[in-house]
Amino acid sequence: MTIELVIPSRRKDLGGFEVGRVLPWTKRRMVGPFIFFDHMGPVNFPPQVPRKTDVRPHPHIGLSTITYLYEGEIVHRDSVGFHQTIRPGEVNWMTAGRGISHSERFDSIRDTGGALNGIQAWVALPEAAEETSPSFVHFDAGQLPSHAEQGLSVKVIAGSAYGMTSPVQTHSPLFYVHLELDAGRTTDVCGGYSERAVYIAKGSVRLNGERYETGQMAVVSPGAMPSITAVEPSIVMLLGGEAVGPRNIWWNFVSSSKERIEQAKADWKAGRIQLPVDDDKEFIPLPEDPPPAAQPM
């Protein structure tokens, strides 16, 4: 068996735009250390994007977030002091560790409007790194290893794949790859990891002959080496790595310990997690139990 299971994206309204939520899912909570995977948009914002569309300051613990755009711009601010405009093809890797807060706003397209299309993913930290110091790193698109040939382009966002290694430092073995294929072009899913998945961000592909459409994630069976053939021009994300063990997830908090999540809840409610520098006038309050869907970005 080449494909272990197929995870559908479920549309979620975030109050201004929709996302397609893929992970976590009832039948598969994680792929390697990837514990959360949202496809933002695609959406075209009109001019005068309302501020309610922004993601106000909110906290995280125990994970790294990766914001990766195909279209649009998002302005990131965090409690470590980073202020970064996120643009297509760049890597913006924020490690929450023992606690961070950040906001994601549409300052740069607020007046004129514009497109937004991209992926927000979370990577659970291994237990030894769950309480690491919070940090943020940014890499321009040209700093990431890539390869292009007739009808195919490959960019390694994080980890190692296809003989290339990203400069992004990770806390556990993983890979995250952006593929673009012309219609009819074929390539193999990279190996070397115990857990792997293929997400179709645009278009449709065949994996060893079986067709998969936009918004579907196909989890690859261990040891299988399926080929990907684009039925039409397609964007495909490959992701996975080595498992880090079971994780608890509550709202924006991820931890191997339920008690640590309770502490994070108390810390946010009491104001013990610092708000983002230059964006400390508002925040998302701690939700009541049960929590709403995890806040992306």
UniProtKB/TrEMBL annotation:
Gene3D superfamilies: Jelly Rolls
Pfam families: Pirin (PF02678), Pirin_C (PF05726)
Ranges where the Pirin C-terminal domain occurs: 176-273
Sequence ranges assigned to domain Pirin N-terminal in this UniProt record: 18-123
Domain of life, per lineage: Bacteria
Annotated SUPFAM superfamilies: RmlC-like cupins (SSF51182)
PANTHER family hit by this protein: PIRIN (PTHR13903:SF8), PIRIN-RELATED (PTHR13903)
Family: Belongs to the pirin family.
Protein name: Pirin family protein
Species: Steroidobacter flavus
